[in-house]
Design goal:
By secondary structure, this protein is mainly alpha-helical. Among the domains are: about 30 residues; about 55 residues, Arc Repressor Mutant, subunit A (Orthogonal Bundle). The protein is about 55% helix and about 5% strand. It contains six helices and two strands. A hairpin with a 2-residue loop joins strand 1 and strand 2. Helix 5 crosses helix 6.
Length: about 160
């Protein structure tokens, strides 16, 4: 039993000796942080002087909103009536079906009449769900047509 205790004491002493330089470095950095906390122009608060989250909120700090959370905007009668009369387009960018993949899909449908979406996705090296979004607008534009599960060039 005494051998076991001696072994554990030796392990603990060894580990304490390994950690001692890190503890000393931590204490030096903590002292430097306290010394710099009083210097003007410092952007970071001292680690010991951090405010809690409710106190920071009361102080009016700006915190990031989570994804999808709307801004808090004060609305007035004129602002809400103006928004109702002029609809804004959400999500800028190009119209659906006008990109490179749409052109590539039209070309492959022209070369392979009756091709299905899984086959088309395999040839293009993309996922099928993307084509389920791209092909219907191309059909409405008259660039391709659908017969059953197959897609054909326009006018076929």
């Amino acid at each position: 039993m005494s051998d076991f205790l001696d072994q554990k004491r030796a392990e603990i002493t060894k580990r304490l000796n390994e950690l001692k330089p890190m503890v000393e470095e931590y204490q030096r950095l903590e002292e430097a942080s306290r010394a710099l906390a009083g210097v003007t122009g410092s952007r970071l608060p001292a680690p010991t002087a951090r405010a809690s989250a409710p106190a920071a909120k009361r102080a009016g700090s700006t915190r990031r909103r989570g994804p999808g959370r709307p801004r808090k905007i004060a609305t007035t009668a004129t602002a809400s009536s103006a928004a109702a009369t002029t609809p804004k387009r959400r999500g800028g960018g190009r119209p659906k079906g006008s990109g490179l993949r749409a052109a590539q899909a039209v070309e492959l449908v022209g070369k392979n009449p009756g091709i299905t979406i899984p086959e088309l996705a395999g040839k293009m090296g993309i996922k099928q769900n993307y084509l389920y979004r791209v092909l219907p607008p191309l059909e409405k534009e008259g660039k391709i047509s659908r017969q059953g599960r197959g897609w054909f060039p326009a006018g076929s």
